Amino acid sequence: MENQEKKRILSMYQCTGTFTLGNYLGALRNHIKLQEEGYDCVYALADLHALTVRQVPAELRKYTKEAYAWLLAMGLDLSKTIFFIQSQVPEHCQLAWLLNCYTQFGELSRMTQFKDKSAKHADNINAGLFTYPCLMAADILLYQADYVPVGADQKQHVEIARDIAERFNGIYGDVFTVPEPMIPKHGARVMSLQNPLSKMSKSDENQNGNISVLDDPDTIMRKFKRAKTDSGSEVRFGEGKEGVNNLMGIYAAVTGKSFDEIEAEFAGKGYGEFKPAVAEAVIAELRPIQERYREIVADKAYLEETYRAQAPKAQAIARRTLSKAMKKVGLVQ
Ligand code: AQP
Fold first, then answer.
1. For ligand 1, atom 35, which residue shows the shortest CA distance?
2. Whose Cα sits closest to atom 32 in ligand 1?
3. Per the residue annotation, which of 117, 223, 228, 241 is the catalytic one?
4. Could you read off the pLDDT of 102-114 as tens digits, one per residue?
5. Mean pLDDT in residue range 86-91
6. Is 225 a catalytic site residue?
7. Is 275 a catalytic site residue?
8. Which residues line ligand 1 (CB under 6 A)?
9. Which of 86, 105, 331, 332 ranks highest by number of CB atoms within 10 Å?
10. How far is it, in rounded angstroms, from Cα 188 to Cα 101?
11. Residue 27 DSSP code
12. Is 102 exposed, middle or buried (0-12, 13-18, 19+ CB in 10 A)?
């Protein structure tokens, strides 16, 4: 295993659509902060994972570049963090194959995401969808990551990566760092504005349910004004008020106010005033990032040069781990 001084964090993002406010508040914003907190961060766009569901090729390319530019606009600092595109580092596929041979059919069939996605895409239950945890384990183990930030619902992914690493290490000695899930302190879970019982998702068919980080102010205002609430009018956190709870969570995450403060601020004012206030706060939060984003995407040469320069940095780490694993299993070097 590598002898790193700083603890390494690995996180990857799917580029199956434009990031949502959920991705932003629940993950990206916190991950950007980690680079200032003394961690060695390695982040990537998981374009290979995106292929487990049928993609429109031109859109996948567009979303990948868009996502790359968005993280730069958010302040990702390439002097501290490695940020690359997964398919530009072929070691991911190479290690994934090895790990496939150390992963049991039974454990893959128990993965919730496989069950969910095969139900959702019944016409395309491909082998990649089934074995994606091996690619995900390769993503993590190649970088000898100590921590993987995950939402509570994603712990299963890190657990299977840990099982595979421990199995491999058990046979061949310490090849991989066994990663731990890192549950974020401020990991707001943002729900759909149209169905507050399901999470806000890029690929939601009802685009009124999600706020894209690139939505313009009018669209954001319209979507919040139409957000599903309940038949009451009191801005108060409580059972059966999932829509309002979600709006309060968003407002709290963006303004830093507590739920008590929010309830006091909107006492006697009703949803009619609360919804536009949430929208305004989100618009103000996203505006400066959107401005930087527009500058970055306008400079195509800069963007391309930047992501191309990052792949070899990732590859230098990945290759060391891969060679070690290949040697251990008996492949001629
Ligand atoms: N609604 C959400 N609230 C809080 N956090 C969220 N994340 C995603 N949705 C929410 C977190 O964002 C990170 C990156 O996720 P991802 O892009 O790899 O994929 P995902 O979780 O599958 O996101 P989507 O938007 O739901 O994508 P699709 O529609 O393609 O499945 C993760 O840390 C995730 O927890």
1. 151
2. 27
3. 117
4. 999 999 999 988 8
5. 98
6. no
7. no
8. 13-14, 16, 20, 22-23, 26-27, 151, 154, 189-190, 199-203
9. 86
10. 37
11. I
12. middle
* Ligand 1: centre distance to CA 173 (Å): 34
Q: What is the pLDDT of residue 152?
A: 62
Of 14, 16, 23, 66, the one to substitute when testing ligand 1's pocket (max ligand atoms within 8 A of C-beta) is: 23
Ligand 1 nearest atom to the CA of residue 199, by list position: 1
The class level of CATH for 3-188+300-329 reads alpha beta
Report pTM. Answer: 0.94
Three-state secondary structure call for residue 180: strand
Burial class (CB in 10 A: 0-12, 13-18, 19+), 236: middle
39 pLDDT more than 70: yes
Q: Give residue 148 CA to ligand 1 midpoint distance, Å.
A: 14
pLDDT of residue 186: 63
Is residue 46 a contact partner of residue 12, using CB atoms and an 8 Å limit? yes
Per this entry, what is the length of the chain?
333
Contact 32, 70 (CB under 8 A): no
pLDDT digits (tens, 9 = 90+) for 14-33: 999 999 999 999 999 999 99
Asked if CATH classification 1.10.240.10 holds for the domain at 207-294, the reply, yes or no, is yes
Q: Please choose, from the candidates 236, 52, 253, the residue with its C-alpha nearest in 3D space to the C-alpha of residue 134.
A: 52
Candidates 62, 80, 199, 327; catalytic one: 199
Dihedral of alpha carbons 187, 67, 133, 315, sign: negative
pLDDT higher than threshold 90 for residue 205: no
Atom of ligand 1 nearest to the CA of 200: 1
- 46 CA → ligand 1 middle, Å: 12
How far does the centroid of ligand 1 lie from the alpha carbon of residue 22, in Å? Answer: 7
Residue ranges per structural domain of the chain? 3-188+300-329, 207-294
Cα separation, 50 vs 228, whole angstroms:
30
**CA-angle at 34, arms to 28 and 35, nearest 5°:** 105
CA–centroid distance, 23 to ligand 1, in Å, is 5
pLDDT digits (tens, 9 = 90+) for 124-144: 999 999 999 999 999 999 999
